[in-house]
């Protein structure tokens, strides 16, 4: 019992430290954005020439989907499915074909979905949600088979948990699923002990490619 309390307190302290770092990072990013804008204008003419040449060489490749990942799931004794294989991390602005739904990682949009306990009632773009996973968020998803009471209870839990987000995903494998970067599991409902266990392990967990990266300042639905 004491160990669990210490673990919870440590995670809370870690998240608060991440939030402070995030605020510093956002101020720095605003400065970088202004600088990048100047550079972008300077390179516009050169970029246009390169783009025209690229389109001549590649035909319609710019309109094609990009494949995000190669590999397969391996299920552990705890019921968590771990992705064994590659997960791309490039920033792309085109659509992405993910091998599983919800996706557990791969190439993604440069802008993340806000994941500071955000609950979305409509479907969100996978490419933005995957960017949130890269920042160490856990994504709670459900479809129309999920019990309404479970959805409401999970939403209340998400709203109290930094580095989480929640949204419906039509056609996913099971009614309620939890996803982190490279990891995923099904749960039976809001009171399933696996919910808290998954959050405890994967919110800003060791799997996080960019620990401490922002979960605010992105898209908000």
From TrEMBL:
Composition bias, Basic and acidic residues: 13-25
Record has Membrane as a keyword: yes
Keywords: Membrane, Transmembrane, Transmembrane helix
Keyword tRNA processing attached: no
Stretches for region Disordered: 1-25
InterPro entries hit by this protein: DUF3105
Membrane-spanning parts: 31-52
Regions of compositional bias (Low complexity) in chain numbering: 1-10
Top-level taxon of the source organism: Bacteria
Name the record gives this protein: DUF3105 domain-containing protein
Taxonomic source organism: Streptomyces viridosporus T7A
């Amino acid at each position: 019992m004491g160990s669990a309390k210490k673990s919870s307190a440590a995670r809370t302290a870690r998240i608060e430290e991440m939030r402070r770092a995030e605020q510093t990072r956002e101020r720095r990013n605003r400065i970088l954005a202004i600088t990048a804008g100047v550079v972008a204008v300077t390179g516009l003419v050169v970029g246009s020439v390169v783009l025209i040449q690229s389109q001549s060489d590649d035909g319609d490749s710019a309109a094609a989907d990009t494949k995000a990942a190669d590999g397969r799931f391996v299920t552990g004794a705890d019921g968590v499915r771990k992705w064994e294989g590659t997960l791309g991390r490039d920033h792309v602005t085109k659509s992405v074909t993910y091998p599983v739904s919800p996706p557990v990682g791969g190439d993604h949009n440069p802008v993340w979905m806000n994941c500071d306990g955000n609950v979305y009632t409509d479907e969100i773009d996978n490419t933005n949600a995957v960017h949130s996973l890269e920042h160490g968020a856990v994504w709670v998803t459900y479809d129309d088979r999920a019990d309404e009471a479970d959805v409401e209870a999970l939403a209340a839990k998400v709203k109290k948990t930094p580095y989480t987000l929640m949204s419906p995903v039509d056609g996913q494998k099971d009614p309620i699923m939890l996803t982190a970067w490279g990891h995923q599991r099904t749960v039976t409902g809001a009171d399933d002990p696996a919910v808290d266990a998954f959050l405890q392990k994967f919110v800003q967990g060791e799997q996080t490619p960019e620990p401490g990266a922002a979960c605010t300042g992105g898209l908000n639905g």
